[in-house]
Write a structure and sequence with these properties.
Helix content is about 75%, strand content about 0%.
């Protein structure tokens, strides 16, 4: 299991480095500015998506709790929502 995760982290790092290299190449190339912007946005979106995937794999429980809270189906009881009963 840990070898699989290490391989996945390595793949993510390689892909992220490749995407940043593409960004730098585009930034310093002789392409006209108006042609650079859409391509830069495209690569930025890929980097953000890659980072989001990595973070979801690192903290899967937190993302599920966040989704449940958005839907209003939070499974963790909050102290202000609990009713206290005295005996």
């Amino acid at each position: 299991m840990s070898q699989k995760e290490a391989g996945r982290r390595k793949d993510h790092s390689l892909m992220e480095n490749h995407l940043y290299e593409c960004l730098y190449y585009i930034l310093y190339s002789n392409i006209p500015q108006e042609d650079k912007l859409p391509v830069l946005k495209h690569y930025k979106a890929k980097i953000v998506r890659l980072h989001t995937l990595r973070m979801n794999n690192v903290m899967p429980d937190n993302s599920k709790q966040r989704q449940n809270r958005r839907r209003g189906t939070d499974t963790v009881p909050h102290p202000q929502n609990e009713q206290t009963t005295s005996r």
